Amino acid sequence: MEYIDFKNEANDLIDKITEILKLMDLQQKNDEVKNLETEMNTPGFWNDQDQARKISKNVAQIRDEIAHIEHLEATKDELETYITFLDEDFTQELFEEAIPALTRISQFVEKAEIEVLLNEKYDHNDAIFTIHAGAGGTEAQDWAQMLMRMYMHWAEDSGYTFNVIDSLAGEEAGIKSATVEIAGNLAFGKLKSEIGIHRLVRISPFNAQGKRQTSFASVFVYPELDDDIEVDIDTKDLKIDTYRSSGAGGQHVNTTDSAVRITHLPTNIVVSCQNERSQIQNREKAMAILKSRLYQHYEELREQEKKSTEASKTEIGWGNQIRSYVFQPYQQVKDLRTNHVIGQVDKVMDGGLDPFIYAWLKMSAKTRMNG
Q: Which of 148, 71, 121 is CA-nearest to residue 223?
């Protein structure tokens, strides 16, 4: 890289950071934290513990955003310092130090730019994440479990918590379905890019003839709603079943019917939870998930969106996939919506999903602006 190219790229990044900082509005966030901290210091703040926890979580989130803004400002200063020093007294040693710094900063700014785009309703919420194996028995069920591990690695790398709420094991291997809670700022905003059918092509480990096999699994994501969101649920519309939680067996086997499954009869939406310690806790968690799903369902009906929740859940098979993961005869993961391609399948399966997420968010933002 020539210095003139470096300088042009650095100045472009500085301009981009300046625009991002305007949108993030540090002064507003500092004022907001100050007001919330004043409220937290009032007598009796913890009398309403649910409200107190909500405010505390909000403060922590805004503080993270402030730290992010300060990091952006420091990054901008770093670029400006490199340009100043290299303009005044160019040395090859300093230039060679600046080139990898430019790459690092470019990746950080791209992430910050994407996060600015996440300003739709519920983008900052935690996510309820579901995976269902498609037709194909053991092969598809194994693929569903591979996807769940991929998202677990992505969540850990992103600093999010990953909590399996409910899962149904396959007969021989893998899972038939799973419901997961992924908690952290912007979890839903990022993971909504994953809604759809995921296709796997590989040499089947379950086929003695070593034939190439195609498998499918579906992914759907809902925002987890705050307690102050009102959803009218008539108890007469609910069918509540209890059953024995599945577990590791031995001393950990569950001998009581603590798992809970709730069916909302008018919409036929079914949710279940088995990971909590008691039937009461499982029921509360299942009701919270049902509330999130019903709210989104009704929102989509009211807004008459072209693609409702159920329309997104197309047949788990050919022609409906959003992304293909090819292990053999070559290695490639391709998103069929954005045409973004990565040739390192292992890297993606280890949680390297951000390039696909960012490409989809950029495409969606462009579509919104044009439409």
A: 121
